[in-house]
Design a protein that fits this description.
Blueprint: E1 2-9, E2 12-19, E3 24-32, E4 39-45, E5 49-55, H1 60-71, E6 87-92, E7 103-104, H2 107-116, H3 124-137, E8 143-147, H4 157-160, H5 166-172, H6 181-194, E9 203-209, E10 213-219, E11 222-226, H7 247-255, H8 263-271, H9 275-280, H10 286-294, H11 298-322, E12 327-331, H12 332-337, H13 339-346, H14 358-363, E13 368-369, E14 378-381, H15 386-399
Parallel strand pairs: 1-6, 6-8, 9-12, 12-14
Antiparallel strand pairs: 1-2, 2-3, 3-4, 4-5, 7-8, 9-10, 10-11, 13-14
Helix pairs in contact: 1-3, 10-11, 11-13
Amino acid sequence: MTILVLHAEPGLLRYDLYVMPEGRPLAQGRVERIGAKRAILRHACPEKGKLTLRRKILDHGRALEVVLQTLTDRRKGPLQSLSEIEGVGHRIVYGGEAFDGSRLIRTEDLLRLMEMVQYTPLPLYENLKAVVAAQRLLPQIPQIAVFDTAYFSRLPLHVVLYALPYELYERGRLRRYGYHGPIHRDLARRGARLLEESIEHLNVVTCYLDEEASVASTAKGAPVEASTGFLPWEGLANATGCGTIDPSVFLQLLSEEWFGVDPAGMRGLLRERGGLRGIAGGNGMIEEILASSQNGNERAELALRFFVHRVRREVAAQTGMLGGADLLVFSGETGVRHPAIRERVCSGLEFMGIAIDETKNAKTRGEGVISNPLAPTQVCVLPVQPEEILARETYEALTGREAPETSDRDRDPLL
């Protein structure tokens, strides 16, 4: 089954084409600077190479038209006809309490999601633009919504409420939602398979450490906790985002003129100038921070210690909520490529039954178990391809069958 997956953001449309259930990529690309005079399409096909186009693309509908033309291009596209596409999966960043799983998009679902746009500053509106465009351009092909929040949508109310007047929840559904749900669900299931155990018998803590970072926990196949909240901003800091912060800091920033912050500039401070970049300087990426720390940069080392401390604290807290973990999973670019980060996070967690094998850890930059086999809590590394997970969720929603696990999750992206 050939599945096209789409992820729309402001000014950007990402796309991937897969053969499922094998998880074989046929093409990958993105349209950047949508709305600008010279938007850019970057396209790659394993069999036909790469392509870069620059042209006027004013909206996501036109962007998808260009993508479909490229996919069927005789020289650079993998398809002879759009009729070869059998399903379209859309990443929908927010589904509120209404959507608890991936599903076929019906007219009433689209209308309900349109109403939800007012509840979140996330790019839900852009997600829905891509849905509408795909329904217009591919009217006979089923469209599947894959929600970032669905996996955590059934967490008990006492877990997700904020200590604010209850009418704010009743009127505006102001609560914690949890994000990266398809990724954490996939990691928990694959981690159980790696140990040759049933997910129904395990307590699993999953660490997704990437450009966005989060920790979640699963007990006997059901979600228990997520570090993210009303938005993905809550929880761990990332390259430029501050993560969880005392709300009184906002009041102080807004009340003191010398900080130079007004309400309009608060988002930029928290999401673009904060995080590890705010502490260490530079771009805030772990690679740069590790290199600077090794060269004696004190602020880089401070940022590194800060990040590790926050991850370790979240892992310990969620393990406590589980009453003990059978498995700890590291994933995402940082979690897979940097053994030093994994070693630092696990150091001090021996009381939880964690004991990593230093040799295994140092050698592992792909899938593998890195813990002492006799340790009560096993630790593993699992590369993740979010786009492939989106394709797998789409396949499962269309067929009702679970896609078998592929063995090349650590492959490099085409672009």
